Amino acid sequence: MPKSKVRKKSGYTPPEDALRSRGAQAKVLQPSPRWYLALMVALWLIGLLWIVVYYVAGDQIPFMVSLSAWNFAIGFGAMVGGLIMSMRWR
């Protein structure tokens, strides 16, 4: 069986208007400030520390006893806040 000819495809070149409009819309993203990283890591550690303290000595700390299951929401909420910040960190 004969082999078919392979056609050479020309490369795609976008129109000049598309190149100019795309270049005008591009934003240069600046790196995050130093305090952003410190706050992000602090939220992770505060959340983790809150949950550990609740497990270890939660029954001896009066305000943690009154919060009961909300201690998990506070701890995990702080950690999720740090996680959300990590997605925006540059």
Automatic annotation (TrEMBL):
Gene Ontology CC annotation, any one: plasma membrane
Keyword check for Transferase: no
Gene Ontology BP, a term: cell division
The UniProt record lists the keyword Methyltransferase: no
Membrane-related topology note: Multi-pass membrane protein
A Pfam family hit: CrgA
Transmembrane segments: 35-57, 63-85
Main localization category: membrane
Record keywords, A-Z: Cell cycle, Cell division, Cell membrane, Membrane, Transmembrane, Transmembrane helix
InterPro entries: CrgA
Domain of life from the UniProt record: Bacteria
Location relative to the cell: Cell membrane
Function: Involved in cell division.
Entry similarity comment: Belongs to the CrgA family.
HAMAP family from the UniProt entry: CrgA
The protein's name in its UniProt record: Cell division protein CrgA
Species this protein is from: Blastococcus saxobsidens
